[in-house]
């Protein structure tokens, strides 16, 4: 018996509505003193955590999972345009990942969080 070769060519595309969305955000504070930037980042992070807590339910949502990292603090000495080193600048940052299954709640929450000082919405993973 002779061998048979079947070749299939073409394209197919299928779209499905998202079932989950993970919001990525960062709290970042910059200033002249280490204590002030650490305190500012910590307080804003606590505010965000307090907003997430009542929304969290692993089974039903609207937040099914979330995490935040530790507050990171560092410093650097920038240079002026005249090549002079400027005073030390301190930075503190903390990142959050929040997974939603209800996009209307996510949208309202994002509006609230985005209005906080020093918060950057880094993106949404669908």
Features:
5 strands; 33% strand; 2 helices; 126 residues
Verbal overview:
By secondary structure, the protein is an alpha+beta fold. Helices cover 25% and strands 33% of the residues. The chain contains 2 helices and 5 strands, in the order E-H-E-E-E-H-E. Strands 1, 2, 3, 4 and 5 form a 5-stranded antiparallel beta sheet that branches. The model has no long low-confidence stretch (mean pLDDT 95).
Helix content: 10-25%
Separation, N- and C-terminal Cα atoms: 51 Å
| Beta-strand content | 25-35%
Number of β-strand runs: 5
Sequence of secondary-structure elements: EHEEEHE
Mean pLDDT across residues: 95
Unreliable stretches covering 5 or more consecutive residues: none
Gyration radius over CA: 23 Å
Instruction: Give me the secondary-structure category.
Output: alpha+beta
Largest sheet: 5 strands, antiparallel
